[in-house]
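pinned: reference chain
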Amino acid sequence: MGFDVLLVEDSPGDIRLTQEAFRQANSNVRLHIAMDGVEALAFLAQEGDHAQAPRPDLILLDLNLPKKDGREVLRHIRGDERLKSIPTVILTTSDAASDINLSYSLQANSYLSKPVQLDKFQSVVWSINDFWFEHAKLPQAR
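pinned: its C-alpha cells
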C-alpha cells in the first residue's frame, strides 16, 4: 500500500529536501509536486495536465505561493465537499500568529514551521510520516 502526498511548495530547495526526507522515511510515499496555488487546485480537480492525478492522502501546503497563495488554496479545499476531508498540514516559514490563527480557523489539520537546519527539517518530515502514515487513520476517498 502506498500513500499519495501533494506537496504545494515553490522553493526548489525545499522540494528536494522533502523528497529526500520522504525517500528515507517511507518508500511507500509517492510525492506529487505543485509549485503554486493554481497548479495545486488543478491537481486536486484533476484538470489539464493533472487529469490522471490521484486523490492525495495528505496535503503539505506552503502559505507563501505565487499565483494563488496557500491561504486561498486552504479556503478552497475546505469549501469543496469532495476535498475537505483530505488532511492538510501547513508547512511554511511563517511564524506569524495571524497566519497560524487563520490557518486553524480555515481548518488546517496542523501548522508546522519549516526549520532552516537540514537535520531539523528532515526530523519534521519524519514526524509527519510517523504520525500520518504510521499512527493516524486516514479518511477514505468519497
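why pinned: The mean pLDDT is 92. The first strand starts at residue 3 and ends at 8.
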